[in-house]
Amino acid sequence: MNKSKNQHVVKHPDGWAVKGAGNERATIVVSTQCDAISFAKKIAKNQNSEMFIHGRNGRIRERNSYGYDPYPPKG
User: Fold this and answer.
1) Cβ-contact 51, 64 below 8 angstroms
2) Domain that holds residue 25
């Protein structure tokens, strides 16, 4: 069973936060979205999971997969 959690970069009152999927608390809070993306990318690569980047409005604006994709596109 895969224990990795997808990582989400979300707006936080103190800047930007990285949260594991389903977690109440942030893993880390940093001042810029760029720093949060960098941190989330390292975690996602380490855990072979996905990273979701949310915009200021909370909607997902980008998604990157660093895990095993069981259905790779052909061609």
Assistant:
1) yes
2) 7-62
Within-domain flag for 75: no
Is residue 2 domain-resident?
Answer: no
Number of domains making up the chain: 1
CA separation for the pair 57, 62 (Å, rounded)? 13
The whole-model pTM stands at: 0.85
Query: Which runs of E-coded beta strand occur in 1-75?
Result: 7-12, 15-20, 28-30, 50-54, 60-65
Cα–Cα distance measured from residue 70 to residue 58, given in angstroms and rounded to the nearest whole number: 28
pLDDT (mean) for 27-45: 98
Of the candidates 35, 31, 26, 64, the residue with the CA atom closest to the CA atom of residue 47: 64
Q: Does residue 74 lie in a domain region?
A: no
Does residue 34 belong to any structural domain of this protein? yes
Sign of CA dihedral 54, 8, 43, 65: negative
